Amino acid sequence: MTRSLPLLLVLLAVLCLIQVFGLSRLTLFGVSPDIVTTFVAVISVFTGQRTGMTYGFASGMLTGLLSGNIGVSLLTRIVEGFISGYCHVPEKSHATMTQKSRMLYLAIVLASFFGNLVFNLFNDPLGESLAYRIFISGTLTCMMNLLLGIALNKLFLRKTLSE
Amino acid sequence: MQKFFNFLVKHNAYLLLLLYCSVALLVIRFEQDDLLSKIRSGGTELQASISDKITSYGYLFNLRKENERLMKINAELLSNVLRDQTVLHDEKNRRALFADSAAASSGYITARVIDRKFSSRENMLLIDAGKKRGIRRDMTVLTPQGLVGRVIFVSDNYAKVMPVIHSDFKVSVSSDRSNALGILSWNGGAEHLAAIEHVPISSPLKKGEMMLTTDFSTFSPRSIPVGRVIRIKPDKLFYSIDIRLAVDFSSLTYVLVAPLKTDPEKIEAFHEDLPQEQPGITNPVN
């Protein structure tokens, strides 16, 4: 992971662009899937809280710049990186691929939920009640991101998880 | 001290979180400041330009569909524009009619030409005013430019007008300068030309003089312009005169109908010695 830092940064930038200009437009009940959250969760699971938070900080800066909401975006991504870091699977872990996958999914759900929580504490773009935004939108966001995570896992992460 | 460093090493993730969160909160706090505002506006510019690029690529894929949609809108707009232009044009004509005459204050009735029978020998106009609006047979129809014709048939809501460019139409005219008298008639052909008959060669009529209606007419008020003399050719007893009609019949939309100039005694006196008029044939008497 450390060796491929430039690659990951480029990937992060690309994912931020995809999120802001593509996925953020695919809304269901006002909620859209967030590939950046999924990415930050994946990084946190494989490299730990500190790296996860740092990637969260960088991605927050990028998405914030593009969406015009830098501060909240920063805070949201940092929290996502920090929370998903609790599901960190060390490199020399003897966990099976299924266990690693479960940790990854848990990290995505936690990151999505808490990220959504932080974002909604500071923002109310649709004028909904806070409870609705936290629980209904939060649940929907978790489900969407989880589906995204499962798809990414099946498509790209099998090799990384099997190592 | 050692304990403090151990604490830091042990809880460095929390410290990093604290640091990052502080930065984020500071950014939130000072988001409206000059520097951050500039950064934000730069970001918005960037987003807008990228969005624009993405959208422009998207358009390429939807070009055909978009084109069809635009064509549809274009057709709708065109029909709207045409309709509006027609209304505007009609309104403009109507206003011009009132602006150039004393129509509004003198009992003149405005009417729109709604149909026209057009042939080289016979022209007939239909106007959208009838008995209900006070139109009567033999009323004079005119525009500010000049004489149009006379009403020959009236229904409740419409009236038929025999225009100057009708072979049966005749009206007494006189020139504005020399007061030469004659009878205006139309012999078919070009709708901007008519002839003046019965002008004796002794008359001082000149080319370019304006011909106006006279008081001799049984239906028309006097001094309505009819046309301008463009050609004078002497025959044995009378001049053969062509005039260019004052009214452009090709673009006639709104007309005025003058109140009836009825003087029964005059008409009675005029008809006293004339043979009986044949039914169905328009009275050629001017």
TrEMBL record, chain A:
> In terms of domain of life, where is this protein from?
Bacteria
**Keyword terms, alphabetized:** Membrane, Transmembrane, Transmembrane helix
Q: Which residues cross the membrane?
A: 55-75, 103-122, 134-157
Q: What is this protein called?
A: Rod shape-determining protein MreD
Automatic annotation (TrEMBL), chain B:
Q: Does the entry feature the keyword Membrane, yes or no?
A: yes
Q: Which UniProt keywords apply?
A: Cell shape, Membrane, Transmembrane, Transmembrane helix
Q: What is any one of the record's Gene Ontology cellular component terms?
A: plasma membrane
Database matches in InterPro entries: Cell/Rod_1, Cell/Rod_MreC_2, MreC, MreC_beta-barrel_core
Swiss-Prot/TrEMBL GO biological process terms: regulation of cell shape
* Species the sequence originates in: Chlorobium limicola
Where along the sequence do coiled-coil regions lie?
none
TM spans (from-to): 12-30
What the record says about family reads: Belongs to the MreC family.
**Where does the Rod shape-determining protein MreC beta-barrel core domain start and stop, copy by copy?**
113-258
Protein's recorded name:
Cell shape-determining protein MreC
